[in-house]
Design brief:
The protein is an alpha/beta fold. It is built from six helices and ten strands, in the order βαβαββααβββαβαββ. It has a seven-stranded parallel β-sheet. It has a three-stranded antiparallel β-sheet with strand order 4-7-6.
Length: 259
Amino acid sequence: MSAPEVLVHRDAPLLAKAVAARLVIRLVDAAAARGAASVVLTGGGIGTAVLAELSAAPAADAVDWRHLDVWWGDERFLPTGHPDRNETGAREALLGKVDIDPDRVHPMPGPDGPDGDDPEAAAARYAAWLNDAARPEDHGQVPSFDVLLLGIGPEGHVASLFPGMPALYDDRLVVAVRGSPKPPPTRLSLTLPAICAAREVWVLAAGEEKAGAVQLALSGAGPVQVPAAAARGRQRTLFLLDRPAASRLPPELGRPASP
């Protein structure tokens, strides 16, 4: 796994613009190299802001949207179209505004899906989709995503992997999470083995309330206590922060990315 790099932007709006610009470059390069690209989306304020900035960016036209596979790192187990679903926010901010192949967009099933109100079966179904999409060169049961985006919670969670919960010990690709400390209580989530299969993992954080979690994630904390500490890409791991989120880091760790 790669060692984390830290880039600090002035504020949350500039962070969202910078991550969107970086994502355009990464997806264009991946498609040029392999004929297709893949991204794993995250929800939350900064994750959705990045997608909105990407939609508005003139450079977005350079992305080969028809050959982009879109996955999610986690999802609230709610019906399609529910305003609290990460998928709903992503479609409103970006996916509904670009010429993307609907067959290459892979939302996590909800209770209105083929498995009904059974999150364990829905998690197994999503894992099967990932397995089917994996190629021999991925050397595993999940695609080597070009970019996997993650938010980080104030207590250090990523995706729907919360400190101390059983999902952190699970080696399946996707799990149902029950009793989430953050509502709604039932969710689906990629596990750490699936997250760490990505070529690049980008952890996004904005706001002073994330500063403690960012500090712990970069200080060698254990993954059970701070799941973000184990979110690492095969080739690259980026912590993309605004100044408040980086405020507890030592100066030598946070490299300014903008004035």
